[in-house]
Fold this protein.
Amino acid sequence: MQTASVLHGREGQIHRKGATPFAIDCNKDSLAGAVSQRACVFCGSRVVLYPIADALHLVHGPIGCAVYTWDIRGALSSGPELHRLSFSTDLQEMDVIFGGEKKLYAALIELIDRHRPKAAFVYSTCIVGLIGDDMEAICRKVTEEKGIPVLPVMSEGFKGNKREGYQAACRAMARLVGTGDTAGIPKHSINILGDFNLAGEIWLIRDYFRRMGIETVANITGDGRVDDIRRAHGASLNVVQCSGATMDLANMMQKEYGIPSVRVSYFGVEDMAEALYTVAAFFADPVMMEKARAIVREELEILMPELQRYRKALQGKKAAIYVGGAFKAFSLVKAFRLIGMEVVMVGSQTGTKEDYQELQEITDEGTIIVDDSNPLELSSFLREKEVDVFVGGVKERPIAYKLGVAFCDHNHERKEMLAGFAGMLNFAREVHDSVMSPVWQFVPRRNKEI
Ligand code: SF4
């Protein structure tokens, strides 16, 4: 067995279950020079707000920030697709010297006239934080002139970690909530927070809730619409997926409008079923609960025989997980167990102490739990544990392939539906096809130091 490479100063952010009593250092800025897998604050905001399809998204900054996040999620829309265009004020040297406010104002006026959006989000980037453009004032001025909400997103890239980007996005959305008419919203109504409609997943989830007799008021933010978010305060419950991205908005809505929230996950059989039961239990309606049970029964009858086939082939194989939010990691650990695989490493970019505590409880002895990792550590863990498949996002993919390890994309760029019962089958199929692919005989696994 090899010894894993861990950067000096990061030892406290790695825990090996069983080796020592549980303790992990997390929720802090990345170690300088560590080439963290994390994205910047601006990117954190951009990924949360991006799926609001009838809003204008203008990046106030150099062109690179806009290009970096152009069409950043595989978030589908059932209608307008304005979100897929990336607009930037393209700040240059002279703007940095003399300020970019005039350019921002002109860009907003031109884009709003041309695209007639329902609202506009204006993202602050590193350089705007440095030169001190008054984005708030420009947005207020354009709101008055054009009659639509123009919302500053205070997401200067350098001012913290990705989690602060989520908070900036939630603060911007909170200014929309409460400005729409809630007439006609029934008692059995929810908002779906933290699902981004990758590959159409929110349509599947909405349909489960519809079959239970529940109306969805607003998708926040997958296939999102400005007018729905404006009336989201009329819903009875916020159903929040993922630990980080939209929890702050749910907390703000609880404080401001008294709307309670529940945390759920739609990944894996157990968590998907639990999500439906949790919502039915909230409404305390026995008929609704029976409908939830019927959905789970029907879906499992189709799913389980198929899953058994994959389980047979994958039994005993090893998986490593590195994702943005730790909440998704909980579901993935359970999903791998369901298909007979062992999770030997699990980590996240933005997990909290409570998240890692929970991971410690649901994983097997010897599992490596890691916070805010980097390519050096990840490749070292993959080699040490002789992993068969690595689950992550676009930045983790090359690490896996360079080591001859199979990869499954579970991040926001993916085009495959992995949520819901149907998504579990897709997940099992994708893991199976990737692990069992004949290509690995031509790319021998590199378990030795390179
Ligand atoms: S906001 Fe800053 S860190 Fe983020 S992409 Fe732009 S320049 Fe880079």
User: Anything to note?
Assistant: The first helix runs from residue 41 to 49.
